[in-house]
Write a structure and sequence with these properties.
Number of helices of chain B: 21
Radius of gyration of chain A: 16 Å
Low-confidence stretches of chain B: none
Shape of chain B: globular
Shape of chain A: globular
Largest sheet of chain A: 5 strands, parallel
Strand content of chain A: 15-25%
Mean pLDDT of chain B: 86
Order of helices and strands of chain A: EHEHEHEHHE
Strand order of the largest sheet of chain A: 3-2-1-4-5
Distance between the termini of chain A: 29 Å
Number of helices of chain A: 5
Distance between the termini of chain B: 38 Å
Oligomer: heterodimer
Chain lengths: 144, 517
């Protein structure tokens, strides 16, 4: 089984830096990059009756859009560099979901980017990087 | 939402408001009177039919219909409402939800949306109406109806999920019109389609009545109590404009804000009620004494014990809508492989709505001494309208407001905001229920949907302008008419629910149905 690097990817500049870092690692030591894209979601949020009706449809559309616009182009680019890569798109709390996937697939490392929020910003909104640093089940690299 | 579509929607709202204003002349009060007269005249026959008494008694048949149904479901499903509450809570908290279904409608979301449609003015104004006509004893029957109603809600919401429509484009919708059609066909019974159409007609009326006019009416009463008397149609036009902007203009931001603030208001309302009850903890025993004594004697109200019973059951049904069928529409979109699980979740609804929230309102009214009694006989002082005389002379939401005010002088201002927001969120929910019934009859399409939405907005103006009596009678009548059709169908479909229930419980016991966390 090859070593798996989970990369939290949302298309942002920071997540691209994380991907570059992971691709560099894999080129050096071998292994697989696993792109993980999490759509923020809480089962306790409030929806109106018409939103409930359309939820299944919207979910399908959101997944398709993420697959097509975000993940597929990157997969092709990474594969062109000769690096093995897989992908997963999930709904949930971002940091928790990344941790769960890392456990499920037996990853050796989680790599994520950092947006460089101010201290107050991350205190109020919470930061994915901070949460992962605390809770990750495997070593976690935070790429600045 | 683009800038263009927002401005287009506002232009539409402005045009709609201008249209109504141009039709209605400046003779404000007489407009209200005219609306009231025409409305009372045109709906009177329907109201008298629904509330007709059983010959030789003073008991209206509709109340018996609701009580018998709730009792039958309670016994048929072996007191289901008391057996599965623990499992219901586990379902709501997501312990049995497949993590791979994240992003789909959760049990919590379905329950929250359904609750936002039922928790509202029924809990604030409806309870006040019940105790001012039926005395404190009405509360007892209201609680009993709430507990029994849990079984009705369980039955209809299970069926709502089981026979929902899942469209090829991914939309999911259900409700009595679908289970009546499909369930009857599956059992080889005739008349399903007929019942479904009949239900839809009453659902549209219910949406316009209890889900709309009653809300607009009580919101206006509350607003004019704070800002001074002004014509009801003004409140109506403003409300209609905002509702129009949301349901036709598709302005989600207004709905978003409401959805964030409504739960907060609910917590604030219940919290304040609790504080008042705790401040008067020594009187709670006496209040329950009044409730139980009044339940069986009436304490001098018109109609005695039966009068209290009728008021209690009427207001409970109006508040928690158990057996009415509306909740089955809201619950239908949940993501689950087992329809029965949504039944388990939905039975929490009458409990929260009626047994908890309504009872608190009633306790605050009773404890604050709003219902005047004759010191010599201990019986209620009845005014010429046949109602219990209240300390301030207020009825409906005004009575609740006065009761809370006696403890916290600032509370009426909070209550105005709460009432307006509750009214608004209930209207949005019912505009959806009504729309589903409408499109079931007339087919889906932009023109059909727009027609219903415009009619809905016009009725907001009528509701705000008319006086409480005719509005509340029509609202009750329309909602109970839904229950007549829905419950008739439920009797034929309940064996299907029983089969689902037995199968699920045995698989739960054997461990085939697993918790995910």
């Amino acid at each position: 089984m090859s070593a798996k690097f989970v990369v939290g990817y949302d298309g942002s500049e920071a997540s691209r830096r994380a991907l570059d870092f992971a691709v560099g690692r894999v080129k050096l030591q071998g292994g697989t990059v696993v792109l993980v894209h999490v759509l923020e979601w809480s089962p306790y949020s409030f929806l109106s009756a018409s939103e409930l009706e359309e939820r299944h449809k919207r979910r399908r559309e959101e997944l398709e859009r993420a697959e097509k616009a975000l993940i597929t182009p990157v997969l092709e680019k990474v594969r062109a560099e000769g690096v093995e890569v897989e992908s997963t798109i999930r709904y949930g709390h971002i940091a928790d979901t990344i941790c769960r996937i890392a456990e499920e697939i037996g990853a050796i490392q989680i790599v994520i980017g950092r947006n460089g929020h101010t201290q107050i910003g991350s205190r109020i909104f919470g930061s994915v990087a901070g949460h992962l640093a605390q809770a990750a089940p495997v070593p976690c690299t935070i790429v600045p | 939402m683009t800038q263009k579509s927002i401005s287009a929607a506002f232009a539409a709202v402005a045009a709609f408001a201008a249209l109504i204003l141009s039709v209605i002349t400046a003779q404000a009060q007489s407009v209200d009177e005219t609306v009231n007269r025409i409305f009372a005249d045109s709906t009177g026959w329907f109201v008298s039919f629904i509330f007709a008494s059983i010959p030789g008694t003073s008991i209206s048949w509709i109340v018996i219909w609701l009580v018998v149904a709730a009792s039958v479901f309670t016994i048929y499903f072996g007191f289901i409402q008391f057996r599965v509450v623990g499992h219901s809570l586990a379902l709501v908290s997501g312990k049995y939800s497949d993590p791979n279904d994240a992003g789909e409608v959760s049990h919590f979301q379905a329950l929250a949306t359904a609750l936002s449609g039922t928790v509202g003015l029924g809990n604030i104004a409806g309870v006040a109406v019940a105790v001012s006509i039926g005395g404190a004893g009405a509360t007892f029957w209201m609680i009993l109806a709430g507990l029994l109603g849990m079984a009705s809600k369980f039955t209809e919401c299970t069926l709502g999920v089981k026979y929902r429509n899942e469209y090829p484009d991914g939309r999911v919708s259900g409700g009595p019109m679908y289970y009546l059609t499909k369930g009857f066909a599956e059992r080889g019974l005739p008349g399903g389609k007929f019942l479904a159409v009949l239900f839809s007609i009453f659902c549209v009326l219910g949406a316009l009545g209890g889900g709309n006019m009653f809300q607009a009416n009580q919101a206006h009463q509350q607003l004019s109590g704070v800002f001074g008397e002004y014509p009801g149609w003004i409140t109506g036009v403003v409300f209609a404009g905002i509702v129009f902007a949301v349901i036709v203009g598709g302005i989600k931001s207004i709905a978003r804000v409401t959805e964030k603030v409504v739960p907060l208001m609910g917590v604030l309302y219940v919290g304040t009620a609790l504080v008042i009850i705790l401040m008067n903890a020594d009187m709670v025993g006496a209040a329950f004494g009044q409730i139980i004594n009044g339940a069986f004697t009436g304490n001098g109200i018109v109609g005695g014990m039966v009068g209290a019973l009728i008021q209690g059951f009427r207001r409970a049904a109006f508040s928690n809508e158990a057996g009415v069928g509306s909740a089955a529409i809201a619950h239908a979109a949940v993501r689950t492989k087992e329809p029965i699980t949504e039944g388990f979740v939905s039975l929490l609804e009458p409990f929260i709505d009626t047994v908890v929230i309504c009872t608190m309102t009633a306790l605050v009214i009773i404890i604050s001494g709003q219902l005047l009694t004759d010191p010599e006989t201990g019986l209620y002082i009845i005014n010429e309208a046949g109602q219990v005389t209240t300390a301030t002379g207020a009825t409906g939401v005004g009575l609740t407001s006065a009761a809370f005010e006696s403890a916290f002088s600032w509370f009426p201002y909070i209550l105005v905001v709460a009432v307006v927001l509750f009214a608004f969120s209930t209207m949005l929910s019912w505009s959806y229920y009504g729309l589903k019934a409408w499109t079931f009859m007339f087919g889906e399409g932009r023109t059909q949907e727009l027609t219903f939405k415009v009619i809905f907005c016009i009725f907001i103006v009528i509701g705000a302008a008319a006086s409480l009596g005719p509005v509340i009678d029509f609202s009750d009548a329309a909602i109970f008419a839904m229950a007549v059709v829905n419950i008739a169908g439920l009797y034929f479909l309940m064996p299907i629910v029983k089969r689902e229930l037995e199968s699920y419980l045995s698989r739960l016991k054997s461990g085939e149905i697993k918790r995910f966390k």
